Structure formats: C-alpha cells, structure tokens
Amino acid sequence: MAENENIQTSGSTDPQQAPEQQEAPVFQMQRCYLKDASLEMPHAPEILMQPQQEAPQVDIQFEVSQRAIQADLIDVTVRGTVTVKAGEKAIILVECKQSGIFAVRGIPAEPLQHVTNVLCPSIVYPYLRANIADLMTRANVPPVHLPEVNFEILYQQRLAQAQAEAQQQAAANQQN
C-alpha cells in the first residue's frame, strides 16, 4: 500500500502546472511530399541539337503558401519554377511543388506566422531543390541547382512591404 501512495503523491498535483504541460508548444513535421512536378521541353529535340552561341538564360522563381488542413495541422508548400532559355526559345521549364505537413499547436498567432513563413519553408526547401535538380538530370540536361534561400529575410521584406502598403492606404483614406 505504501508504494501506491508514493506513486500517487510523487506526481505534481499543483493545478497550475497541469495546464502548462497540456499547452506546451508543439512544432513537428509529420510528412514531406512532392505535391506536383512538371517538366516541359517545348522545342526538343531541335533546340538540343543546335550549338548554343551564348550561355542560356536561367530564370528561377519560387513562392510559399500555407493552409490549415485540420485544427493542428498546416500544409506548407514551396513552389519552384526554373526556366532555361536559349535566345527566345525555352530549352526546359521545370515546376515543382514540395509540401510539408506540420503539427503546430500552442503557438500564438504572431509567432505562428513566423513559423509557417520561415521555419516550415526552410525545412521543405531542400527537398524541392533536390527534386528539381533530379528532374532536370533525368531529362538529360544540366541541372540548375536552386540557390540557398534565407526565408527570414524574405518574410521581413514581405512584412515591410505590407506595412508600407497599409500606410499608403491609410494616407489615401485620410485624403478622401
């Protein structure tokens, strides 16, 4: 009997600690997956047979999006598009969407925006880079390796841009 009493009394019975333990922040990737992949070589095979007079032009673009899929699950997608052109003709166009499902709870709204716009894309992006390079290699063209991206700087730039737009809108409303 004494053992049962020790077990029951050894746990914390402080009512203030129980909510803290239940509300501990959670951030964990549940799954990373390739959501979509597209590869086009619209001028093949002719463009591949022509000697190139100059270095091809490479255009790299990407964007980040997120959506809640359940109460505590967020799907974050990083889309990357690589277009390689010789003159006006496209040699290759590759677009991939790499996504991650993240369990996120107990994080207030403002830090949650940081998590979904900086931390989640930083985790998903290396998979996107590898998949785009792999697709290009499988198409038998030299792969374009996406550069490292600082999602923190991009997020801060978007916040500054949104704030500037809000100030311009407020100024325009005051003039009316």
TrEMBL record:
Keywords: Chaperone, Cytoplasm, Protein transport, Translocation, Transport. It holds the Pfam family SecB. It comes from Sutterella massiliensis. SUPFAM superfamilies: SecB-like (SSF54611). Homotetramer, a dimer of dimers. One homotetramer interacts with 1 SecA dimer. HAMAP family: SecB. This is Protein-export protein SecB. It is found in: Cytoplasm. Belongs to the SecB family. Residues 1-14 have a biased composition (Polar residues). Residues 1-23 are annotated as: Disordered. Its main location: cytoplasm. One of the proteins required for the normal export of preproteins out of the cell cytoplasm. It is a molecular chaperone that binds to a subset of precursor proteins, maintaining them in a translocation-competent state. It also specifically binds to its receptor SecA.
